[in-house]
Amino acid sequence: MRAPFCPYPRSRPFALSKARRVPLLTCTALLGAMLAQAAMASPVIFNQPFSALPGDFVSLTGTGFGPAPRVFLKTSTQAAIEIKGVNGKDKTIDFQLPKTTPFAQYEIWVSSDQTSSSPHVYINAPRAMHFDFPQVASSGPLRIFARNLSLGLGTPTVSFVDPQTKASLSAKVNVSGSSAYCLSISAPAGLVAGKSYNVVVSNGFGSAVAEQTITARAGGADPFGLGAPWAADFAPLSANKYDVKTSTALTLRAKG
User: Fold this and answer.
1) What residues make up the domain containing 116?
2) pTM
3) Which H or E element spans position 13?
4) How far, in Å, CA of 174 to CA of 178, rounded?
5) Among candidate residues 63, 182, 56, the one with its CA nearest the CA of residue 123
């Protein structure tokens, strides 16, 4: 009996097998190169504490720290120093802030070798996130919410900055009515109604621009004690006074 017909030479299956292996080997090589590149990538800090005191233990999480990471610290009044006794590798680092370093806004970064360092992060830096109202009148009340706004060791300040002219107006901070999470202020006088302002907050150690802008509006009386920027819109209603028993403007009158 004649053998079944084979349309390909005997060497063809082997050739196909080799051809199929080439892309797999290529992908494996590329993946290995990518992993090697990722291993050599500069470190990046994903998370750090918002606040810390001298002598506190601090944890950093991120990636690319390497097997023997080095941590550096500097402040506005102190040159960069390397922190000793760092524990951890690759994705997590633990260390103690020097007890002799004064309380300040701490600038921190990580180095995985002599040439590769992370973007700098900040501890005890203020962060202004939002306001209790999107508008405010000149000299009107306003609260700012976020983190590290008033730390008790520095004097917080707030400025309204015109984004076009860069002119800055200072607000009045009610320190006794403020905390690390909330600043109670009176807006600056002289705000231009309808104009949006950047709000710059300082806790006495560092400053930050609020994540939102705020719009100035016309002020006025607050006869009902609402404490809101739109309270003046109701001022005309305060002139409407009715005797509920005798007023002829009322179709129904009170009795008794």
Assistant:
1) 44-123
2) 0.72
3) helix 12-39
4) 6
5) 56
